[in-house]
Amino acid sequence: MSRNLIAILRGLTPPEALPIAECLIDAGITRIEVPLNSPDPFKSIEAMVRSFSDRAEIGAGTVLTPNQVLEVKSAGGTLIVSPDCNPDVILATKAEDMSSFPGVMTPSECFTALRCGADGLKFFPASLIGPDGLKAMLAVLPKGTPTFAVGGAGPDNFGAWFQAGAAGFGIGTALFKPGFTVADVKERAAQIVSAYDTAIAANG
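The chain above was modelled as a monomer; its predicted structure follows.
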């Protein structure tokens, strides 16, 4: 089963990259981003791509410039996630045939991102928009637009977001923080996947 969950591994270090990625993939989370403000992010991305590119889509978050897109590409990453809607970053991502998930909060940003070729919209921070805000924007967005709630979406409210029309979620600190062990992440990943599956079944 493919789930619309993106693991946000902010603060991940290269020695942690493979064991953490493996436990996430085994749990059923097969999109993984390493934010570029993590220690040696390209080294982590390269290691994960080398070991798991056949099982997961791996790339970077907090991507702010076209040059960073190219660095992620050089490391083997195929996923670009940003906190903002920067047309230059989206266009550079699509020019390299990579997946683009820019951060948006307003209808103007949503339509700008889609016109530039974004594959999905990252509503961030989702806590400021809320399910009601997303539902209102989906009334004017193209039908079927993939929308991901990030920052304020988690196991306790997946259902409300699905009811509003969210397609998926990015999960950060609820899944991984610096200092978490592999066992910690494994337990949290299992809980998140279970809650996701339950919520999607209830709203299917």
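Helices lie at 14-27, 41-52, 66-74, 87-95, 107-115, 126-138, 158-164, 182-202.
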